[in-house]
Every structure is written in structure tokens, then in C-alpha cells.
From TrEMBL:
Positions of region (Disordered): 323-346
InterPro entries attached to this UniProt entry: ATPase_AAA-3, CbbQ/NirQ/NorQ/GpvN, ChlI/MoxR_AAA_lid, P-loop_NTPase
Protein name as it appears in the record: MoxR family ATPase
Species the sequence originates in: Streptomyces pyxinicus
Domain ChlI/MoxR AAA lid: from-to ranges: 240-312
One Pfam match: AAA_3
Amino acid sequence: MTTYDDRASLTELTATVERVRGSVEGVIEGKPEVVRLALTVLLAEGHLLIEDVPGVGKTMLAKALARSIDCSVRRIQFTPDLLPSDITGVSIWDQQRRDFEFKPGAIFAQIVIGDEINRASPKTQSALLESMEERQVTFDGQTYELPSPFMVVATQNPVEMEGTYPLPEAQRDRFMARVSVGYPSVEAELQMLDVHGGVSPLEDLQPVAHAHEIVKLVEAVRGVHVSEAVRRYAVEVVAATRAHPDLRLGASPRATLHLLRAAKATAALAGREYALPDDVQALAVAVLAHRLLPTAQAQLGRRTAEQVVREILAGTPVPAAPGRQSGFGGVGRGVPAYPQHPPRSL
């Protein structure tokens, strides 16, 4: 069991994250919210799906995050002919030992970059399911643990359909959050021309944090306090997706767990030892929208999952802060959203 003495302090967490964030933002100009969400997912022990049109820096973001941390990194280029064994590993006959020897695949790394994940067949995509959920690989009846920290950063193009396979619902549900990089502003694009015009900034990017530091920060995030009111609020938001008339598939209990973990990481990044309803609200769209399936009528009406999540947030009563009748932009219940006396320092 982890004790408070084993965890990093919030001051140490903030300092380390600021170094990593500054390193990544030196490559990805004008997208601080995207970089912050990527770091939130990393500290919350989740996996990130970067979904956007070609050329906006999806792979660049994944590489910049990976190179900013001194840990093992593997890149998998997903193609239609990629085999599951290319990801998990394969048994090779050892003539000296006269026995089969397991050769680990590309998944055996601390940060795995899956480029264009929707170009691989569903059979190959399913090779990631056990690794992403249980952080292990089972091969020939033998279980192999994956290193820590472990994070899959996958990219995909939602526009191009030729030669692609939609991610199954089970696969999408294992990604903690989905983010779209989006087009840069005019100023950011001009700066990009100056920075990227000659040499790629990735070539000069040096690690600013070690893997063991990230492990300590993950332990610190686990210790963030979440009150009963905030937990209930998160459950009510997720449960509302299962009963919404515009959705034929709502969010799973795994989504609730991911939402709460991400809220704890957001609180820690803000220097707080407790989570607020604001943290849940800020992450609900990124954590929930990619798991939802709109009905045919909603699709005909051009209703998106993001719009439905925002509608649910607007209609779900928000627990009030201590001493307030209503709080955080919603209808309060008069119950504390966080403790009057926060837990002692991490």
C-alpha cells in the first residue's frame, strides 16, 4: 500500500509537469489546452486518442510527449497487413535451448505511439485490448507484465474512409479521452513556419523528466481526494447518457472511472488536493463523447455526441460548494462538493 511519504508533493508534480508542458509546447505551437489534456491523461494512467484531419500535428504531438520523458518509446505504423503478433510478440525456436523463446512486440514500451490506428484490421486492433486495460500481454498461456508508466497514444483520421476500419466500441472505450488538435491560429502558423521551416524541433528535443518521476506523480494523483458529492455528480452525468433519447449507446462504468481519474489529475495539476465538480465538467466532453453512439434520427438531425454531452452537463444539478446554495454554474443540492478541511499534503 502506498503511503503519503512515498508520493510526490503537489509542488513537485507541478514543477515536473511544467517542464514537460514547456517542452511539448515548444513543438506544438498555440495548442496549450491539447497539451494539457495529454498530460492529464498520462498522469491519470489512461490512453489518448488524437483524432483530426491530416497535417495538423497529431503524430508530432505524440512524439513530442514521448521524447520529453526519458522512457522507452515504440512507434507502430498501423497498416492493413499488420499482424497481431507484430504488436504483442512472437515465439521463435531457439536451437541452443531447443525450445520456443518469446520475443516481445512493439507494445512492450512505456509510451506506445499508434499511428493511423484505424488502418489496421479489427483483428489487429483487438491485440491492444488486453494491453490497454490490464497492462499485460498473454501469449501461449503465459502472462507478461508491461512496464510502468504505460500509455498508448493513437492517432486517426476521421475524414478519410478508403482503406480504414472504424474502431470497435470496445477499443474506443479503452481510450480515456479523445482530443482534436485543430487548425492553428494565424499567429501560431506563422511561428510554426519560422520554427519548423529549417530543422524539425523534434531533433533537438531532450527529455525533461524521467520515467520514475512520472510513476511518483501518478501515485500523487491517486491520492487526490474526491468527495461523495463529486463522485455522485460524475455517476449522474454518465448515467444520463444511458437514458438520453438521442443516444443508442451510452457510456460504460469504465467511462465513469476514467472521468473520475481524469478529474483527480486535473485537480492535481491545478495544485489542489481535492477534486471539484468543475474538473468533471471540464473533462466530460473529452472523456465521454467518443464512447457514445447517436441514434439514426440524431445523425439525420446532425446532432453530435459532443452536443449531447454538453446538454447533459447543462441539465444535471451540480453539487454546491460549502456555504453556497448553488455552485459551479449549476443548480446546487446544498451538499459539500469538497471537504471543509482538505486532506493533508500529498
